[in-house]
Amino acid sequence: MVVRVDVKRLLYALPYSRTLRELARNAKVSHTAVRRVVKELSKEGEFRVVTDDNFYNLTRIVAFVDKVPERLPFGTTGVRTLTSLEGRKVLVMAYLPRPLAEDYIKSLSEEAHVLDWFASTDYVAWLLHPELESIAPKDFDSLVDRAHELIPPRTNLRPLPVLDQIDLVLLWGKLLLGPFARPTEIFNRLLAEGERVEAPSKQVLSYHYRVHIQPGWRYNTYFKYTSQEELPFTAYYMKGKEAEKVARALALLPRLGMSIIGQGKALYLGQPLCAYHPLLVEIPQTYVVEPLTMYMKLNLYTRVPELWRLLDPETKRWRWVEQKIELKLQQ
Length: 331
Prior knowledge:
The chain is α+β, with helices and mostly antiparallel strands.
């Protein structure tokens, strides 16, 4: 007989559970039941790790360009075409070491004209929390004030100047395969992709995980897939001194959304429920932001970059690699 599990209780325990065993313990259900439910939920959505990129000395690049590039600089994570009242926009996103942000933009400029861009100082995604499930549009102002209380704090440690190859492989695997991917599974994935790598000993992996990866692991979340025919994928780009706090609150609206935040600029990406769309129009009437609302037409490229290729094996420092990726269109 299959034992029924309170899925809500399990998901509320997800943000602070880094392994399936932790999730079982925090949700007070059996390990077998957790494995079964996670497998079922993975068919309907995606489990994700939300990182404190500052601790890793990494950043997320948001750039708008005048056309779809035929080639992409190394580090690109996504290319999307968006439509708005101002016409078509092409959004390019990247994830790479902070010291290489300018190099990335210079390389991107060789393929398309960069209209605007910023490097992130924070990244926030939808958080599974009982209070947030029932947030209504009328509650948005209070959410702006309380967002910092609901979001797990950032790492209170000195940032790592440079991650090493083991760290970067582990981080790549967690971002690609989700929070519950084991180190051996991550290295096996690399082998399957043709990489010549050898998994370190369990002791070495344990050290790198505890000292370098875990401190920058902010929380976990779960995004449930929703058809764009049901909920359009919305991009809300803001400039202004209150862009950061507005974007942080938008990321917490149920049930799928994230905000990439920079200095005086922020981009919210998500599928807010229809009831929240009038809120997007009202925000600039209350907060000091200049927004642009856009809707996604095509998702052209999605990837988690192999950041260890930007690590000089001799000096153990970041280096820019002028390697372009051919854009392969995908619906």
